[in-house]
Write a structure and sequence with these properties.
Elements: E1 5-9, H1 13-26, E2 38-42, H2 49-54, H3 63-76, E3 81-83, H4 92-97, H5 106-115, E4 122-126, H6 129-134, H7 136-143, E5 147-149, H8 153-170, H9 175-186, E6 193-196, H10 199-207, E7 215-217, H11 218-237
Helix pairs in contact: 1-10, 1-11, 5-7, 5-11, 8-9
Length: 238
Amino acid sequence: MENFFSIMGGMGTMATESFVRILNQRTVTHKDQDYLNYVLFNHATVPDRTAAILHPGEAADPLPYLLDDIAKQNLLEPNFIVLTCNTAHYYYDQLQDATKIPLLHMPREAARALQGQQQGGKVAFLGTEGSVRAGVYTKELTAAGFEVVLPDEVLQGKVNQLIYGDIKERDFLNVPSYHEILADAIEGQGCESVVLGCTELSLMEEHAPGHGFCVVDAQSILVDRTIERALADRQKAN
């Protein structure tokens, strides 16, 4: 297979399935051959990223697993790599250093997209505790000129319950909880918009729109950048 990209997924699996489904839905097609060429690594057994960030030396380290995925992709030589887990971007530099293949940076793409919608101001960030502690989104959004507001303990608790208690453990899309979280993040914290930096939250946004809030969905933006890059590569080859 020529002119393909690879997807580092499985963190979690349902969120990865959402990414692939949206990717295929947004690709303009008229026949089978119009779809994009890609290889999916659904590495479901990668240890929890948040646990590793919050409890270094105690929780299992996901980095060796991710580096092993990179090594295998080096053998396949895709045009580029898509990392669908937000929290795993904590290890982005180490992963990019392990390959010459470009690795798309989801938080950076989200910050650039927000710049096209909003010039500065306060923006709420929602994600796992690992993403919040890692500070990757805070760094990218601050560099893009935004004042980043992070969840307080109560709001983060609601986010944790939605991500881990509802979606990951019970496969339950808790729409009322999701809409309540958005209201708390935007109205409760005086923000103009909210950036979703967790693929489970992106899954909620896919299935529970219509809330009326300004939401920047990092996974949705990554889908668009992936399609743009894959089509550009295809056009070059032709």
